[in-house]
Amino acid sequence: GNVVRPTTTAPDDEEKYKMPRHVKQDTPGAVEIFIEPGQDSKDIAEILLSKGVIDQTLPFVVMAELNGFDGRYQLGTHFVLKDMDYNEIMHNLALPPETTWITFPEGFSYIDIKRRLAEAGVNFDEAEMDRLVDSPSLFTQYSFVTNIPTDVEERIFALEGYLFPDTYQFDLNASEVDIIRTFLRNADRKITPEMKERASVLGMSLDKVLTLASIIQNESGVVAEQYKVSRVFHNRMNREMMMQSCATTNYLRQLNGQPKVWAATAADIALENPYNTYKYGGLPPGPICNPGVEAIQAALYPDTEEPNLLFFVAKGDGT
């Protein structure tokens, strides 16, 4: 029959008709429930049972169908409490899943990205993520991926440089594949045909442009100066001079678990590694971070006001 609610409620009625509690990650006693594609009420009941939220699965399955919740649960991460009744549990599982917004600044490396994801509470398998980042052949639906060199043994993290910096929304249990695809979809939008055409005019592959852009990005975060930094590096490459970028040695320091430094040390400069631009000529085997649009534009259009620049001095404050 129909439920008729009174127009005025006594204290007992207010308790009877209270709205279901909305449980979030930071709610005391919250129990995480992750609903995957293809799971039905029976599967979800088994998860709730295993987490100690319910004592039996059959009543939950029956109530889900009677109350119209069956098939309405939303994929993703949810939170419930162990003292909830079935209706409150079902209500929470039918709400939009718990997600987190994460900002990845320009110049973040893949290592930085993993750290920021973990800090935000995203659950992922680091070994699986590393495997995917080194497997560009799994993401060939994005045209630029097919141009990433796969025969360069010295390259560190094949997709470094293509994990586009931006603010993203992730489910707390997003799969490693979904995380990587989220970055690459954005890169596919931001890397324009005009950029590719300009790279061709310069006689550079898109991958080399992104490698140069990643160095520019980490040498200076000041957009106006990035174009002059670009001119320095273009001039050095054209004259077959060493690039001598501290940004590349800092990348190696990060990979080795060392803190970044303002200026490369004698040990950094002597390091035998193709990413060390003090020791090896030309560009390193791949990007050292994930550059933003301005750094990419700077790599493509070096400053023309001072065409003979060969040096710059970092002040230590980003300028």
Features:
319 residues; mainly alpha; two-stranded antiparallel ribbon; 40% helix
Report what the structure shows.
The strands form 2 sheets. The protein has a two-stranded antiparallel sheet with strand order 1-2. The N and C termini lie far apart (72 Å). It has helices spanning 11-16, 41-50, 58-66, 86-93, 110-119, 126-133, 176-190, 193-201, 206-219, 223-238, 246-255, 266-270, 293-300; strands at 31-35, 76-80, 99-103, 167-171. The chain is mainly alpha-helical and 319 residues long. Residues 1-11 have low confidence and may be disordered.
Largest sheet: 2 strands, antiparallel
Sketch the topology as an H/E string, one letter per element: HEHHEHEHHEHHHHHHH
Order of strands across the main sheet:
1-2
Distance between the termini: 72 Å
Q: What's the tally of helices?
A: 13
Helices and strands in order:
Blueprint: H1 11-16, E1 31-35, H2 41-50, H3 58-66, E2 76-80, H4 86-93, E3 99-103, H5 110-119, H6 126-133, E4 167-171, H7 176-190, H8 193-201, H9 206-219, H10 223-238, H11 246-255, H12 266-270, H13 293-300
Antiparallel strand pairs: 1-2, 3-4
Helix pairs in contact: 9-10, 9-13, 10-13
Q: Quick gist of this model?
A:
This protein is mainly alpha-helical. 40% of the residues lie in helices and 6% in strands. The longest helix has 16 residues, at 223-238.
